[in-house]
Amino acid sequence: MSTAKVIHVAVGVILRGQQILLALRNGKQHQGGKWEFPGGKVEQGETVEQALKRELQEEVAIDVTASSAFMQLEYAYPEKTVLLDIYLVTGFDGEPEGREGQPLRWVGIAGLGDIEFPDANQPIVERIQQHFLTLKPA
Ligand SMILES: Nc1nc2c([nH]c(=O)n2[C@H]2C[C@H](O)[C@@H](COP(=O)(O)OP(=O)(O)OP(=O)(O)O)O2)c(=O)[nH]1
Ligand SMILES: [Mg+2]
């Protein structure tokens, strides 16, 4: 059994209207070739929100102005265990661009189920769809 420590990751579910921003992880990265919610590792001395702001500036060139904690999820990949700290990003300044050359796309909430995400992400997709697509009968 591994005793390696859990990698804490700040993850942004970036909303614009009914769409969510995804970025393609490059083939050389862990879980490469899959679409992700932009984000990255929380560094020592940083709060998760600070990490989120820094990572989204570094990766997709936006300045987060409004965010809220959404869910946390620990997932053990064979090679490492991650703690995904997921935030809804409901306000930002700037037009997103892939700062690291990565393709970006906006996907409607209903379409998230058709996207190939890292293995850890299934519960995130379900929770987003539950949160935003719950039918409200008259
Ligand atoms: N950003 C992000 N990471 C995810 C998602 N799902 C998932 O399993 N991960 C995993 C993949 C990685 O092992 C880890 C995030 O690491 P990362 O590669 O984004 O870290 P980073 O931006 O700090 O990059 P680096 O400096 O280490 O290259 O979390 C997701 O939706 N978004
Ligand atoms: Mg990253």
Structural class: alpha+beta
Give the percentage of residues in beta strands. 35-45%
Radius of gyration: 15 Å
Tell me the series of helices and strands, N- to C-terminal.
EEEEHEEEH
Large-scale geometry: globular
Ligands in the structure?
Answer: 8-OXO-2'-deoxyguanosine-5'-triphosphate, magnesium ion
CATH homologous superfamily grouping? Nucleoside Triphosphate Pyrophosphohydrolase
What is the CATH class name? Alpha Beta
Question: Which stretches are poorly predicted, pLDDT < 50 over at least 5 residues?
Answer: none
Average predicted confidence as pLDDT: 95
Give the name of the CATH architecture.
Alpha-Beta Complex
Work out the number of β strands. 7
Question: Helix segment count?
Answer: 2
- Which fold does the CATH topology refer to? Nucleoside Triphosphate Pyrophosphohydrolase
Helix share bin:
10-25%
Euclidean distance between termini CA atoms: 52 Å
Instruction: Characterize the biggest β-sheet.
Output: 7 strands, mixed
